[in-house]
């Protein structure tokens, strides 16, 4: 991948993060939007929209950082654990799912039912499972566990600041852009790389044809 393709890839990821941040804010902050719509307050409404887009863009940067860290971790894991890397990833996924249930529940001091934390953890697992299945169809069966690892483990690590804030609004405003950006990066990167390689091959073919 050349520099231009990389910039386009990151730019699209940022756009997705900004859009996801704005869309989820309509649901999470519906009362705030409503207060500025009736009576209509253009400046406050514009500021709120720009703030949530900016928040989504910020989380997209977190996602990009986590994604490239994942690429390094995956390569390092293959070199270190070799054929056992798949099993190690499965264990880490199970460990993170447990953490997503246990630690937030302990932090809530019984104010929130355990059911909601279980639902949250398995909701992320289910979404990751669906994305991993799509990844398999686009590539091969070996991509399933690494894709699930990214969507569950890496996303959860990126989400830690959102889980530490009291209340659920910030957690929602963070997790949706993270999931959206990680999904796009996971599914789009192979296609971007493939297009670049195809372009390089066409360029070489054209140069060889001119020489002939």
From TrEMBL:
Keyword Metal-binding on entry: no
Residue spans crossing the bilayer: 9-28, 48-72, 84-102, 114-132, 144-164, 170-189
Domain of life: Bacteria
Single Gene Ontology BP annotation: positive regulation of sporulation resulting in formation of a cellular spore
UniProtKB keywords: Membrane, Transmembrane, Transmembrane helix
Keyword Membrane set for record: yes
Pfam families: KbaA
Protein name stated in the entry: KinB-signaling pathway activation protein
Organism annotation: Oceanobacillus bengalensis
């Amino acid at each position: 991948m050349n520099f231009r393709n990389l910039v386009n890839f990151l730019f699209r990821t940022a756009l997705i993060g900004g859009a996801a941040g704005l869309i989820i804010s309509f649901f999470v902050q519906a009362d705030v939007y409503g207060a500025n719509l009736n009576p209509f307050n253009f400046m406050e409404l514009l500021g709120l929209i720009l703030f949530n887009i900016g928040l989504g863009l910020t989380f997209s940067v977190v996602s990009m950082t986590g994604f490239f860290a994942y690429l390094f971790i995956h390569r390092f894991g293959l070199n270190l654990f070799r054929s056992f890397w798949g099993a190690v990833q499965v264990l880490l996924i199970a460990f993170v799912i447990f953490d997503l249930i246990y630690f937030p529940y302990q932090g809530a001091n019984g104010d929130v039912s355990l059911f909601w934390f279980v639902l949250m953890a398995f909701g992320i697992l289910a979404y990751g499972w669906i994305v991993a299945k799509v990844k398999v169809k686009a590539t091969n069966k070996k991509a399933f566990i690494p894709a699930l690892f990214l969507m569950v483990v890496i996303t959860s690590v990126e989400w830690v600041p959102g889980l530490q804030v009291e209340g659920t609004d910030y957690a929602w405003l963070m997790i949706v852009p993270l999931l959206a950006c990680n999904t796009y990066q996971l599914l789009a990167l192979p296609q971007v790389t493939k297009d670049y390689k195809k372009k390089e091959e066409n360029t070489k073919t054209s140069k060889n044809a001119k020489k002939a």
